[in-house]
Specification:
The chain is α/β, with parallel strands linked by helices. Helices cover 41% and strands 14% of the residues. The structure holds pyridoxal-5'-phosphate (PLP). Pyridoxal-5'-phosphate binds at residues 113-115, 147, 149, 192, 195-196, 221, 223-224, 255.
Length: 461
């Protein structure tokens, strides 16, 4: 396999003997960045580029540059990091109506991303349950539609994961199943607002009642929806309450690096109580290098990323987020309308700003094959095979929703013609294959390992 850009640029197998001129280095990087940005600037790429506004990126770069060299772990040298971090957490808590909490002190933790926030939540629940309820064999219950980051966190922290089924029509978790699955070793349950797959919001109100009656934690995964659903609700879209106004909700994860329009590398984990957050604080008091403590799993942290996240939030402001949400919800509605105009296609569940669709007449990956040729990049799903589109700001550009409608109509015709043959593409999320549902698990894992290996491959000499 060709090594990326080996036809254009020198491949560095070891440090260049003498350094290169900064302008030459930057010129080379600019060529790659420009080429790669063209991929999503068209607005045809699902998710991942939530903001897509180069002016905003330029602004974030300046904010980042002011503090990029600073380690947020050494706070005596950077009180600004304390200001930025505290204010990011406070603004996020406010968005989730933490003022409704009267019996404890709401607080938060900035992590490196959605998976980081979820891992810290699982760790906090495990540690807290061990300390307060002597739980030694912790288990955690997630809807099967919830993000793989929960499986990973439970795997890392040796917590048993129980997966609750969802209603095949609404795609919301079976709350009765969750209730029955809770036992004396359950540390927390989970609902998504919204889930990545279908954009559906689990019945958080019922989960909250269950959590209170069974005295377990309730995490709300707002990694994706956290910074857009509250604005959608204000715009009048039908979005049920999922935040701290529900008394059973104990933690909420929300990714500033998604609809917070900040750089990749930050997320906020909000806690209903300080006691829960602090249960996962780490201390080493007798180390020869000195006394050590860290609020989360990271040691050194980039003050630059925290600063840029803060800058994103205060620059955009409430009205800014509301305006972007309005455009995104409107575009999603138009695109969902296009899907619904084809009787051969079916929207799964009851989505808002992201949607997933399948077909009962042909393999939906035929539609993907065709749309790919037109430059569209969806995320592929399985059980059932489906295509997923998270609408972001690049799709709100004029003409994109119209182009989607036009290309989709042709794709449906193509899929009908080719219904007898098998489709070329399959479900991929962050490099994870969907459509290969008939292969042995060990074979799929080998395939996935090869893909990850290849993403980290060392250039051949
Ligand atoms: C993106 C996402 C996550 C995981 O976040 P990362 O930032 O990719 O680690 C978790 N839950 C949902 C619903 C997500 O969309």
């Amino acid at each position: 396999m060709d090594f990326p850009y080996s036809d254009q640029f020198e491949v560095n197998r070891k440090l260049p003997e003498t350094g290169r001129s900064p302008s030459e280095v930057l010129d080379e990087m600019r060529i790659m960045a420009k080429e790669e940005d063209a991929f999503w600037e068209s607005g045809k790429c699902s998710g991942t580029m939530y903001c897509g506004d180069h002016e905003h990126y330029g602004f974030l770069n300046e904010a980042f540059g002011l503090f990029a060299h600073v380690n947020a772990l050494q706070r005596d040298m950077c009180p600004s990091a304390t200001k930025f971090e505290a204010e990011i957490i406070s603004m996020t808590l406010d968005l989730f109506n933490s003022q409704a909490v009267k019996d404890s002190e709401p607080c938060g933790l900035i992590t490196t991303g959605g998976s980081g926030s979820i891992a810290h939540a699982v760790l906090a629940y495990r540690e807290h349950a061990r300390a307060t309820r002597s739980v030694e064999r912790p288990n955690f219950i997630k809807p099967e539609t919830a993000h793989p980051a929960f499986d990973k966190a439970c795997h890392l922290f040796d917590v048993e994961l129980r997966k609750a089924p969802v209603d095949p029509v609404t795609t919301k978790v079976d709350t009765g199943w969750v209730q029955d699955a809770i036992d004396d070793q359950t540390v927390a349950i989970l609902g998504s607002a919204c889930n990545y797959g279908y954009g559906s919001i689990d019945d958080i109100e019922t989960l909250s009642e269950i959590a209170l009656s069974k005295k377990v934690g309730l995490h709300v995964d707002g990694c994706l929806g956290g910074f857009i659903l509250p604005f959608g609700a204000q715009l009048g879209y039908e979005i049920p309450v999922f935040d701290f106004r529900l008394p059973g909700v104990t933690t909420i994860s929300a990714d500033t690096h998604k609809y917070g329009y900040a750089f990749k590398g930050t997320s906020v984990l909000s806690f209903r109580s300080k006691e829960l957050r602090n249960s996962q604080y780490f201390y080493l008091t007798d180390w020869t290098g000195g006394k050590y403590c860290s609020p989360g799993m990271e040691g050194s942290r980039s003050a630059g990323l925290i600063a840029a996240t803060w800058a994103s939030m205060v620059k955009i402001g409430h009205q800014g987020y509301l305006g972007y949400a309005e455009q995104i919800f409107k575009t999603a509605k138009a695109m969902i309308g296009s899907v619904k105009s084809h009787p051969e296609l079916r929207i799964i569940g009851d989505p808002t700003f992201l949607f997933s669709f399948t077909s009962d007449e042909f393999d939906i990956y035929h539609v993907n094959d065709f749309m790919k040729l037109r430059g569209w990049r969806f995320n592929g799903q399985q059980y059932p095979n489906a295509l997923h589109m998270a609408v972001t700001r690049p799709q709100t550009q004029p003409g994109v929703a119209e182009e989607f409608a036009k290309d989709l109509a042709e794709a449906v015709a193509y899929a009908k013609e080719n219904a007898g043959s098998s489709a070329a593409s399959s479900g991929i999320y962050g490099g994870v294959m969907g459509g290969m549902t008939n292969e042995a698990d060990s074979f799929i894992k080998m395939f996935m390992a090869e893909m990850m290996d290849s993403q980290m491959r060392i250039p051949e000499s």
